[in-house]
Amino acid sequence: MRDRNDVTAPTDNGASSYHNKITHDIICFAALGVLILALLVCNLCIGSVEIPLRDIFGSLGSGGRGADGTVRSILWQIRMPRAAAACILGGALGLAGYLLQTFFHNPIAGPFVLGISSGAKLTVALVMVFLLGSRVRVSSWGMILAAFAGAFLAMGFVIVMAGRVDHMAMLIVSGVMIGYICSAATDLVVTFAQDADIVNLHNWSQGSFSGITWENVAVMAVVVAAALVSVVCLAKPIGAYQTGEGYAVSVGVNLRLLRVMMVLLSSILAACITAFAGPVSFVGIAVPHLVKRLFGTAKPLIMIPACFLGGSVFCLFCDLLARTLFAPTELSVSTVTAVFGAPVVIAVMLKRRKGRS
Amino acid sequence: MGSCYFEVCGLSAGYHKEPVIRDISFTVRRGEILALIGPNGAGKSTLLRCISGQLGIWSGSVSLGGRKLSDMSRQELSRCMATVFTDRTHAELMTCEEVVAGGRYPYTGRFGILSEQDRAIVRDSMEKTCISDIRDRDFHKISDGQRQRVLLARALCQQPDIILLDEPVSYLDIRYKLEFLTTLQKLVKERRMTVVMSLHELDLAQRIADRVLCIREGAAARFGTPQEVFRDGYIGRLFGIERGSLEEGSCVAELEAAAGAPEVFVLAGNGSGRDTYRRLQRDGVPFATGILYTHDLDYPTARALASEVVSLPGERAMCGEQFQAAKRLVDQCTEAVVCRDSFGPWEEENRKLLEYILESGKVKK
User: Fold this and answer.
1) Confidence at residue A278, expressed as pLDDT on a 0 to 100 scale
2) Virtual torsion, Cα B289, B293, B295, B300, nearest 10 deg
3) CATH code where residue A74 lies
4) pLDDT score recorded for residue A268
5) Is the ipTM reported for this complex over the cut 0.85?
6) Number of folded domains in chain A?
7) In a domain, A3, yes or no
8) Which residues of B fall within a CB distance of 8 Å from A254?
9) Which pLDDT tens digit goes with each residue over B192-222?
10) If exposure means fewest CB atoms within 10 Å of the residue's CB, which of A174, A181, B232, B244 is most exposed?
11) Which of A121, A103, A95 is nearest to A284 (CA)?
């Protein structure tokens, strides 16, 4: 065989810029981590009842004892699971957006615009209304399963459309359309289900992190963690897929398997979010772009964890605003995410246009 | 390695049950360049996609060094075959070096992290393709010519035995066309790689290829060395050239000649008449010319554009026969153009012709 070692000795000038990049990445990751911690603390402190920082640490240190009863239950039963959910689901949203943008080679793809969240919302609403009627409580797993079915169906529709339309704007339009159809159907279901419990459902169908329990958090943590690990393991083939599908094949990527995995994982993530928080808009589109700018790279091995952390920061921040901005009235989290996310999408489209001309 | 290193045997494939290529067979030796030529849509790209494994094979087989590609794992295959295709390369926020490093994919571990040796190979590939100076530039902000060389460097990083290229120099200007092909040629000789590439530039195909395979309507037509393929008007037939012509010896194209009886006689030779022929063609004036030896620089253009050419093979001396023929043509024409006024001793007839033309008064001032 040939000699594969017939190469020149490494030079130093390449190595230093390489190390600079690594330092930059570490700083960015650290910044995201600090932001998450800070926002978590804010989310626990701020609200209709202000809880001083001291009490929080005291409560955490004593494992829920200390402090008085109300504060303790607000902290442990309401704020903590809610903050944890915003953190986990936000990360899942960022990651789902990244996967979909990569899969469709489309910078404005995301679980919400492609109608995947709405598909999941419809099936979850159907299952909830049906089971509420028969007085059976839906478990977290049941919700995820229902949402997954809806997400998967919507995703299937979008993929079929992607095969037929060659323009990326048309793909988004068809996704938005399926989103509207599913939302309309959901509203119909919710309107005609005359149960007192359905009020919650209405809140949920607008997108909200309220009413999350520890059991929910445990389930979503397991599902999202599994998905995150799987995506990280796919980082290498995703990197090749990003540069071009034909090229990915020529370097030995099993294209079909990779595609199936990306569809499954993004559907699972989108389903998980929708099952617990309803459809949350724009996080999926905006976060990957913001993160890409922050890190100055599109490398999957950086982007995957970074999108997750970025999504967490984004959602924690937006949920904080949603809860506190017009307290005691609570905004739907989608309202807030749209305010911050939509400008990013517009900026992306303007930039692309500029890049083309 | 055997004499036929890369072998394609009875290959058929297509899209959506519609066959695009049928029963194509050919062999290439190690270290040889095979050029695929043929009309647009004949199936060159499909053939390349099929060989590379991007498109399923319906029947037939492809083997490299005696081993069937279908028996190799994806990783094995990607370690011995690389591609430079025309698909758009998405490389958002990637430097040229990062794009090139993508070629190390088949050699890196689970997460694709480059070892020191991988980095050295990336640098080496970039040096070989003369792109070391642009390695930190954004891939989307370099010229087309540089981009093609980056993609070639990426293919080299795979340390392949065979490289497939699909129209690698289309859209490049002539400087980059030559630069790219020269680089490729050097690499092939250095590393004893085999190259299969489709080319629309027939002149360059004729010059760079060791073997040429003509593809027509999805099937293999002529296959051989450039000398065997570029002859007897075959290229014109392959492409169905109806208007204009292609001179196969040096692959020079001429536009469609003006039709009709000659109106202008051009006294030319020694390469002095080509520009006049082309000017007359642009003006749409049919013309006659002479007396030319068939090895004259003017001769291919005259053949392609003139209504009538008085000519004779190089091993004979001019004689009265050609002079009479040329004189008749001068008489027929209403105008004459003289492109030269000095003649060698072997072309006394041309000197006489010049005198005759000047006497006739048909030369316009």
Assistant:
1) 85
2) 20
3) 1.10.3470.10
4) 92
5) no
6) 1
7) no
8) 74
9) 999 999 999 999 999 999 999 999 999 999 9
10) B232
11) A95
